[in-house]
Amino acid sequence: MNPIRVLAVDDSALMRNMLSAVVDQQPDMEMVGTAPDAFIARELIKQLNPDVLTLDIDMPRMDGLEFLSRLMRLRPMPVIMISSLTTRGSKATMAALELGAVDFLPKPEHRGSDNLESWRQQVVEKIQVAARARLTPRNPGDRPILSGITVRQQSIIAIGSSTGGTEALRRVLTPLPVSTPGIVIAQHMPAGFTHSFSQRLDSLCQIAVREAQDGEPVLPGTALIAPGDRHMEIFSQDNGYRIRLSDAPPVNRHRPSVDVLFDSVARQAGKHASAAILTGMGSDGARGLLHLRQTGAFTLAQSEATCVVFGMPREAIALDAAKKVVDLDDISQCLLNSFNYKNSPKTDSRR
């Protein structure tokens, strides 16, 4: 099997050297070249034909977003953004994911050996995933708002996602009407990015979208996103639900974990819930989705054809956790329909 060919684009010589050292230590990948700016990168892409590109945001002559936009029009390829943990960095990263970047990685803030080793492992894993990712066509156009439903106080929607999930969540949430049950979301994302992500979605959606706060109620017409690096659960109160955040150890190597969220929704809401597991690497959320189905919730998984990475949905389908397998742009309507037709055998279909 040929090694994964990587090209690193960053104006920092230190970062280029760090990335090269990590990549060249792996038996299944090689750093075929590095570039300090977009213009040199453009020529190296033509010469070297890399499989994966790592791309900085703040660079001289042309920033990473402009370069990414041109790249995705002319020569689409898997791109991992390397961003600083700043407000500008997080907002720019969200824009990059909308433009078609597969994933992102914060630059290491601390030089301690434990932090650097964790960062190195993330670099390797994200490059491996990006090399296998399916580049889905960008579809930035507005989608029509769906018809609302009668919302009961106990109704709730739970969604879990990882790699490719930021774009998938945008596609699911933007057509939802205000008369939608409260939504709780666990998206694998580090601290410092979920606030910008929720703000961006809030500006695009009819429903309100925000980063969840400990103790706040889950209300109709509102989507609450688990803060980066914190688990999120729900608990019952006054015939509705509230949010509980925690710093408990990672589950399935993730915090927030989709399984943690789904398990709490299964315990607290059961048959009053509907849940979807979207694109992502690994198995987080699969057992939680099965738990939800066993307690009477309606469950679905995103179809392979529309996933950037068909890992989490595949594992859920293998466990028979998903009542339906649904294309990305049909998920919004399917979730709404589930509250009208939960007991109908017509909802039990497979692809």
TrEMBL record:
<dbReference type="Pfam" id="PF00072">
    <property type="entry name" value="Response_reg"/>
</dbReference>
<dbReference type="GO" id="GO:0008984">
    <property type="term" value="F:protein-glutamate methylesterase activity"/>
</dbReference>
<feature type="active site">
    <location>
        <position position="188"/>
    </location>
</feature>
<keyword id="KW-0145">Chemotaxis</keyword>
<keyword id="KW-0378">Hydrolase</keyword>
<protein>
    <recommendedName>
        <fullName>Protein-glutamate methylesterase/protein-glutamine glutaminase</fullName>
        <ecNumber>3.1.1.61</ecNumber>
        <ecNumber>3.5.1.44</ecNumber>
    </recommendedName>
</protein>
<feature type="domain" description="Response regulatory">
    <location>
        <begin position="5"/>
        <end position="122"/>
    </location>
</feature>
<comment type="similarity">
    <text>Belongs to the CheB family.</text>
</comment>
<feature type="active site">
    <location>
        <position position="162"/>
    </location>
</feature>
<dbReference type="InterPro" id="IPR035909">
    <property type="entry name" value="CheB_C"/>
</dbReference>
<dbReference type="InterPro" id="IPR000673">
    <property type="entry name" value="Sig_transdc_resp-reg_Me-estase"/>
</dbReference>
<dbReference type="InterPro" id="IPR011006">
    <property type="entry name" value="CheY-like_superfamily"/>
</dbReference>
<comment type="function">
    <text>Involved in chemotaxis. Part of a chemotaxis signal transduction system that modulates chemotaxis in response to various stimuli. Catalyzes the demethylation of specific methylglutamate residues introduced into the chemoreceptors (methyl-accepting chemotaxis proteins or MCP) by CheR. Also mediates the irreversible deamidation of specific glutamine residues to glutamic acid.</text>
</comment>
<keyword id="KW-0597">Phosphoprotein</keyword>
<feature type="domain" description="CheB-type methylesterase">
    <location>
        <begin position="145"/>
        <end position="342"/>
    </location>
</feature>
<dbReference type="Pfam" id="PF01339">
    <property type="entry name" value="CheB_methylest"/>
</dbReference>
<feature type="active site">
    <location>
        <position position="284"/>
    </location>
</feature>
<dbReference type="InterPro" id="IPR008248">
    <property type="entry name" value="CheB-like"/>
</dbReference>
<feature type="modified residue" description="4-aspartylphosphate">
    <location>
        <position position="56"/>
    </location>
</feature>
<dbReference type="InterPro" id="IPR001789">
    <property type="entry name" value="Sig_transdc_resp-reg_receiver"/>
</dbReference>
<keyword id="KW-0963">Cytoplasm</keyword>
